[in-house]
Amino acid sequence: GQQLNQSPQSMFIQEGEDVSMNCTSSSIFNTWLWYKQDPGEGPVLLIALYKAGELTSNGRLTAQFGITRKDSFLNISASIPSDVGIYFCAGQFAAGNKLTFGGGTRVLVKP
Amino acid sequence: GAVVSQHPSWVICKSGTSVKIECRSLDFQATTMFWYRQFPKQSLMLMATSNEGSKATYEQGVEKDKFLINHASLTLSTLTVTSAHPEDSSFYICSARRPEGRAYEQYFGPGTRLTVT
Predict the structure, then answer these.
(1) C-alpha distances in angstroms, B20 versus B15, B29, B41?
(2) Is A101 in contact with B44 (CB distance < 8 Å)?
(3) How far is A41 from chain B (nearest CA, A)?
């Protein structure tokens, strides 16, 4: 099946720091999505991208749809404690089709 | 809007019994619902796509006779885990798609944690 490689697998943040994570695919996607999942809950959509090269922001979050349509990144600026959680990228090939999820990036707070 | 609920939120059952999980779209009609399974510290893996009024489409490796899916109405899909075993213990999450929304728009439920003893 399709594989989405998401990195890093985990990271520690300190309040105020910027955070970056990315996803790469061996295949082209028509839509890239970024979700956040808190423990014991379902994923919540953060940003949706549906055009190659598109750069979209949602508050402190910025995501880009790679030109090759095989990658995407998510940046979180000036992180705050509530940014802790698991972030997933997901790709979709065509309208209504299923989503393929990346392995997730676990964001933790530096002790 | 676009709220999806799941019931129960957690369930413990004995090995060999069956468990039914409900997924409801509360404020919209969902022609398509998706069922995912998530093991600890892993990603979401799609199990099946459920279309209202028709048979579900299962992903490769998912036993359709073990994971029964019924999408009887535009607001309700159910997943029944039959003859559950400890290895079926997982976090089951559904999502629902609005037909009038963007193609990618899937709204996720809060998940159901199943523990089989």
Answers:
(1) 14, 21, 24
(2) yes
(3) 5
CA distance A100 to chain B (A): 8
* Digit-coded pLDDT (tens) for B7-43: 999 999 999 999 999 999 998 888 899 999 999 989 9
Counted across chains A and B, CB pairs separated by less than 8 A come out at 58
Range B37-41, long-range pairs (CB < 8 A, 24+ positions): B37/B90, B37/B91, B37/B92, B37/B93, B38/B90, B38/B91, B38/B92, B38/B93, B38/B111, B39/B90, B39/B91, B40/B91, B41/A106
Inform me whether the pLDDT recorded for A1 exceeds 60: no
* Chain CA centroid to CA B112, Å: 9
Taking any CB pair shorter than 8 Å as contact, residues of chain A touching chain B are 1, 31, 33, 35, 40-45, 48, 50, 88, 92, 94-104, 106
Furthest CA-CA distance within chain A:
43
Interface contact flag, A99 B111, Cβ < 8 Å: no
CA distance A93 to A97: 6
For A57-74, what is the mean pLDDT?
96
B43–A103 C-beta distance less than 8 A: yes
Alpha helices in A19-89, H assignment, sequence order? none
